[in-house]
């Protein structure tokens, strides 16, 4: 009699008499509690009752007193109730016929076994699944049931090792389930005396040791599950040589070990397996496939993922096992061809041979007749070549087709999705990472069930058809790294289910489409030629739980619309905003500070001006998803059938290099990159409030003022780059307390004073982190802050050949100043060009200036050092530019960008705006390069000329004094370079550094010469 789900309670439901002959009674799924004991007393009068089901109620521990009058009761189900704590089962002592007792899913922590409990000697099945039993009295109450045949203790709180009690007393035990606990260590020796075991489940614990030899005693074993432990398992399987009933082996997640060579010989087993799952790790580069498999003919499921099995692909596995349903040989080391079997396994549902070295042509011919029920075909990460066979369109049950990362070529067959295609259930089509070409067939978007489409990293051309609107079920779309062009269809922004979009690294132009009616989580449109943003790009995500994690518009040509975009992003929960390498101008919008969920902000390589918004320091820039739940659910989805697609990656410059962060790293990453802009003013002290930020890059701007002392609060920062600005003052000594720094640079500023204490993480950085700051001293710089301890100056490698303090000075620095001083401002460009060309021989000479304490200088003509080419001229000039930019100009009271030097001033501006002269100097002939620079020189403003005059007047006295000492020297035209040098004030050593990028090979910091030239 069944009253299941009648919603009975103590107020109703028992207003009738129970039939005295009742044998089966089910009261499950009601609201019964202990208040109905009076009614249960009536149940205790049912002397013939054999099966009583009280599961899914609210019954407590004192229920047993109402059940003693059931002498014939064989099965009692109290699962899913409120039994809790230590349960005294002596109240069941009168149930002498009881064979099945089920306490599943209660809150029991222990069983109390008293003398009367021994009357339960006929108990066959005891189920304590999903309780809170800790095992403190396990052996005490376990021996009370000597006749038990089935014992389930899974999903409890057992910890520690299994005691070596006399497990052999459980001679009748046939099924033992210890899975889902926290057992550790090795199995006790007496454990293997339970010789009647048919089913043994040890999965998901922390057992260790070689399980192979001990399993030999379980000769009756049919089912063995030890997955999710740290067992060692011999690959030979010889421990099962006497087993005749073995059918199921589940060993995923353990370590496969190699037996001795003698045990690897072919042997014929007595058993026929149905399931063999050994997805494991191995400490060997490769191991042989066990030979006993040659004699297995009933296999339905085989999984050797990650076992590094060597040799030719075992096509015989399919030939011998016509009942095969799932063949998973992922990430083994098989080579050779994958061949279709001559005896079709008609029930084959899954073939996964990815991550091997399989070669040859793609499967073709009659694949649909051999695998008519194939659901999942994964042959990715191999070396399969040829074209995609058109026969695939006849696999009517296929849901996942993954041929990515092979060597496939040609075009996508039109019939794959056209008329006659039977791929009506295809859910994922993954063809990325091949050499496929041609246009993307428009009928590909007629696969109405498609959820994931990956065509990335191929050679596709043409446009995306607006027929993409037909793919209304599309969740993930990736076409990155192709040669697609034209505008992105607006229909892409109308795909209601779309969550992952990657169209990066193509040639798309026009505007970014609007996504106002959908709620994607990841959008990658970087590295295209997009030039504008749509109005109202995003709607308010107030319905869906998943935020917009990533918006990547980096490396495009977008110049406006950022204010409207940020306004649209306010309610999206955005975490990563990547706008690097565009043409944005103006101030950084303060509305950015309303994006309170941001973890990464990259606005580098733009043309932003003005000050850094101080409100950025009021944001968190920390990840509030430490377990990655939001990332994994939003990116992979909780209902994905194939989560290999759409592995989220972000590119972000951290630690002075472009890093690619995957999901497992993204959940810990946070950072701000505002480098390579034109930002000015001081660094807001509020940025020191970003205590959880990992990377902060403000380099290559025009920032002034001091390094904020509040930066000592950036306790989680790993990369801090403030280089190539105009910061001044002392570096805050508190920065020595930043313990996680891996990258630190304040190079090429105007900082002064002592460096922070050289300890902790700061002691791991060399002088390159501080170079280009003339007035800095202290470790790791060679300049001591105590003049009496000043170390001798050392020169860059290769410049000091004879032990003297020889300094290389390039004539390119001297020539423009000399020209500007001797030629009136209004002279024609032609005259200047003629003059410069007449000095060509001197321009490409390098002088060796030997500086002595008496200010005497000896010059030597080293014409052979440089050839007369634009390349070497420009490379040498770079050394001059950085010396000019970083040196103090107190004599003219002028900043480096207004310095009264001719050529290098012009080129600094060219560098600043990234002109053709700077970006492509190697493509410009020498004469044309000179002409272009001289044209710039004629247009030098009044301020530069006035500063030049001030400088020259100050130099005049030095020049006259020097000329007296050098009067005896020959005044030939060939020595005009010496005269040019006489007009210049050489204050610093010159080093070869790229003027618009961070220096790659930097020598010691600039050291003043002993005196004037």
Report the average pLDDT across residues. Answer: 78
Please report which band the strand proportion falls in: under 5%, 5-15%, 15-25%, 25-35%, 35-45% or over 45%: 15-25%
What best-fitting shape do the alpha-carbon axes yield?
globular
Largest sheet: 28 strands, parallel
SS-derived structural category: alpha/beta
How many DSSP helices?
Answer: 16
Give the termini distance in whole angstroms: 113 Å
Number of strands: 56
Q: Detail the poorly predicted runs.
A: 629-646, 790-905, 970-1013
Overall radius of gyration: 40 Å
InterPro entries: Leu-rich_rpt, Leu-rich_rpt_typical-subtyp, LRR_dom_sf, RLP_Defense_Trigger
Membrane topology: Single-pass membrane protein
Protein name: LRR receptor-like kinase
Subcellular location: Membrane
Summarize the structure in words.
The strands form nine sheets. This protein has a 28-stranded parallel β-sheet, with no helix packed on it. Strands 26-28-30-32-34-36-38 form a seven-stranded parallel β-sheet, with no helix packed on it. Helix 8 (811-822) packs across helix 16, helix 9 (829-838) packs across helix 14 (926-938) and helix 11 packs across helix 12. The radius of gyration is 40 Å and the shape is globular. By secondary structure, it is an alpha/beta fold. The protein has a domain at 806-982. Helices cover 14% and strands 20% of the residues. The chain has 16 helices and 56 strands.
């Amino acid at each position: 009699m069944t009253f299941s789900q009648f919603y009975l309670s103590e107020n109703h439901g028992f207003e009738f008499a129970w039939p005295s002959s009742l044998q089966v009674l089910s009261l499950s799924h009601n609201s019964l509690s202990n208040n109905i004991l009076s009614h249960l007393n009536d149940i205790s009068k049912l002397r013939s009752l054999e099966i009583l089901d009280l599961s899914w109620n609210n019954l407590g521990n004192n229920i047993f007193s109402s059940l003693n009058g059931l002498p014939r009761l064989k099965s009692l189900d109290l699962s899913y109730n409120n039994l809790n704590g230590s349960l005294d089962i002596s109240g069941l002592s009168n149930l002498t016929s009881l064979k099945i007792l089920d306490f599943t899913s209660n809150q029991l922590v222990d069983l109390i076994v008293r003398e009367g409990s021994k009357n339960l000697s006929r108990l066959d099945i005891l189920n304590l699944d999903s309780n809170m039993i800790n095992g403190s009295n396990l052996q005490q109450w376990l021996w009370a049931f000597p006749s038990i045949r089935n014992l389930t203790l899974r999903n409890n709180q057992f910890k520690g090792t299994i005691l070596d009690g006399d497990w052999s007393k459980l001679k009748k035990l046939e099924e033992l389930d210890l899975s889902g606990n926290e057992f550790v260590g090795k199995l006790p020796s007496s454990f293997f005396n339970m010789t009647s075991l048919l089913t043994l489940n040890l999965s998901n614990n922390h057992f260790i040791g070689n399980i192979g030899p001990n399993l030999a005693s379980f000769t009756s074993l049919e089912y063995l599950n030890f997955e999710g432990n740290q067992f060692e398992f011999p690959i030979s399987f010889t421990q099962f040589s006497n087993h005749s009933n073995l059918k199921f082996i589940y060993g995923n997640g353990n370590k496969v070990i190699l037996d001795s060579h003698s045990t690897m010989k072919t042997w014929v087993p007595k058993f026929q397996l149905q399931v063999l799952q050994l997805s494991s790790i191995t400490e060997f580069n490769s191991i042989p496939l066990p030979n006993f498999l040659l004699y297995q003919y009933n296999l339905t499921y085989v999984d050797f993922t990650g076992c590094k099995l060597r040799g030719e692909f075992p096509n015989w596995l399919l030939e011998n096992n016509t009942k095969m349903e799932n063949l998973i040989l992922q990430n083994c080391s098989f080579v050779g061809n994958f061949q279709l079997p001559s005896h079709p396994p008609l029930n084959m549902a899954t073939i996964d041979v990815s991550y091997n070295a399989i070669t040859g042509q793609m499967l073709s011919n009659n694949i649909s007749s051999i695998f008519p029920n194939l659901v999942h075909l994964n042959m990715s990460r191999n070396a399969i070549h040829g074209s995609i066979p058109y026969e695939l369109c006849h696999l009517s049950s296929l849901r996942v087709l993954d041929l990515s990362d092979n060597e496939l070529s040609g075009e996508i067959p039109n019939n794959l999705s056209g008329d006659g295609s039977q791929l009506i259930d295809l859910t994922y089509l993954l063809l990325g990472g091949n050499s496929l070409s041609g246009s993307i067939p428009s009928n590909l978007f007629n696969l109405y069930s498609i959820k994931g489409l990956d065509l990335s990293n191929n050679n596709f051309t043409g446009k995306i058809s607006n027929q993409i609107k037909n793919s209304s079920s599309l969740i993930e779309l990736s076409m990155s790294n192709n040669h697609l062009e034209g505008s992105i269809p607006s229909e892409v922004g109308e795909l209601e289910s779309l969550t992952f979009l990657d169209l990066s690294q193509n040639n798309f132009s026009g505007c970014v489409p609007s996504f106002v009616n959908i709620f994607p989580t990841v959008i990658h449109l970087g590295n295209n030629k997009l030039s504008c943003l749509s109005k109202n790009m995003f709607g308010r995500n107030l319905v869906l739980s998943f935020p917009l994690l990533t918006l990547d518009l980096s490396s495009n040509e977008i110049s406006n619309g950022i204010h409207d975009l940020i306004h649209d992003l306010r309610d999206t929960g955005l975490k990563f905003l990547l706008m690097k390498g565009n043409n944005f101008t103006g101030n950084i919008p303060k509305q950015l500070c309303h994006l309170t969920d941001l973890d990464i902000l990259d606005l580098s390589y733009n043309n932003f001006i003005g000050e850094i918004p101080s409100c950025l320091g009021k944001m968190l820039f920390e990840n509030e998803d430490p377990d990655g739940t939001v990332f994994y659910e939003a990116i992979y989805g909780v209902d994905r059938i194939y989560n290999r697609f759409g592995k989220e990656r972000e590119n972000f410059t951290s630690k002075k290099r472009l890093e690619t962060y995957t999901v497992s790293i993204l959940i810990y990453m946070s950072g701000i990159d505002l480098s390579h802009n034109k930002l000015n003013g001081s660094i807001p002290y509020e940025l020191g409030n970003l205590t959880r930020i990992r990377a902060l890059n403000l380099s290559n701007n025009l920032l002034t003022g001091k390094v904020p002392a509040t930066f000592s609060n950036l306790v989680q920062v790993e990369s801090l780059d403030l280089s190539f600005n105009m910061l001044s003052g002392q570096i805050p000594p508190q920065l020595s307390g930043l313990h996680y720094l891996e990258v630190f640079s304040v190079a090429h500023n105007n900082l002064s004073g002592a460096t922070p204490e050289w300890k902790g993480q700061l002691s791991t950085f060399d002088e390159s982190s501080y170079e280009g700051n003339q007035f800095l001293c202290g470790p790791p710089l060679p300049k001591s802050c105590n003049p009496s301890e000043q170390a001798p100056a050392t020169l860059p490698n290769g410049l000091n050949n004879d032990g003297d303090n020889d300094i290389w000075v390039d004539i390119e620095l001297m020539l423009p100043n000399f020209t500007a001083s001797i030629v009136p401002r209004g002279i024609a460009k032609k005259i200047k060009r003629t003059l410069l060309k007449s000095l060509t021989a001197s321009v490409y000479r390098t002088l060796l200036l030997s500086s002595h304490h008496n200010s005497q200088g000896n010059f030597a003509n080293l014409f052979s050092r440089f050839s007369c080419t634009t390349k070497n001229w420009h490379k040498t000039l770079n050394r001059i530019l950085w010396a000019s930019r970083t040196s103090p100009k107190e004599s003219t009271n002028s900043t480096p960008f207004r310095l009264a030097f001719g050529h290098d001033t012009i080129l600094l501006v060219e560098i600043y705006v990234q002109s053709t002269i700077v970006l492509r100097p190697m493509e410009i002939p020498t004469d044309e390069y000179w002409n272009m620079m001289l044209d710039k020189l004629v247009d030098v403003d009044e301020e530069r000329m006035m500063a030049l005059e001030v400088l020259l007047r100050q130099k005049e006295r030095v020049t006259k004094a020097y000329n007296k000492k050098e009067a005896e020297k020959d005044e030939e035209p060939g020595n005009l370079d010496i005269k040019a040098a006489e007009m210049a004030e050489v204050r610093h050593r010159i080093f070869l550094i790229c003027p618009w990028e961070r220096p790659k090979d930097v020598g010691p910091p600039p050291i003043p010469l002993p005196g004037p030239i």
